[in-house]
Each structure stands twice: as structure tokens, then as C-alpha cells.
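Hey, resending since the last one bounced:
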Amino acid sequence: MCLGIPGQVVEIVDAEQSLAKVEVSGVRRTISVRLLAGERLGAGDWVLVHVGFAMAKIDEKEAEATLAAMRRLGQAYDDEIEAFQATSIV
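The C-alpha cells again:
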């Protein structure tokens, strides 16, 4: 199952290439934020991440509620975190 999962922006790694480092459940990865070019993203912002891309900017309340619901999914959540750990953009 492929899910979008909330991640918090830690830093903008390369603004020109639209790359940001996000943290998802303690795992940090660099992802593309190109699809959110019209948004002003910065450290502390929350985004919905799917296969290495930020799909939407979300607020902290929505991120927390989504993460809580996903944790209740059990194995599907664990699989998504595992997949996130295994990906990176170079």
C-alpha cells in the first residue's frame, strides 16, 4: 500500500532544485518540493509526502491527526515508514 504521510520540513536543502529535508517519524530524507513551488515552505512546515515528493502543504493539527490515524493502521504504517527510510533523492 502506498500512502501519503505527513513530514515536517527540517531545512530547505537546495531552493534552486526544490529540495527539502523532511522528518517522518524520526527518519530524515531529502525530498522534492517542486510540486509546491507556489507555497512558501520553510523549516517547521508540514507537508504530505508520497514517493519522495511533497504533494501538499498541511497544518500541524492535520499532520498530527493523520499520523495518529496512520499509526492505528499497524503494518501498513510500518511498511510506509520502511519505504520512506529506503528512499532518497541524490
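The CA atoms of residues 1 and 79 lie 8 Å apart.

Sorry for the duplicate.
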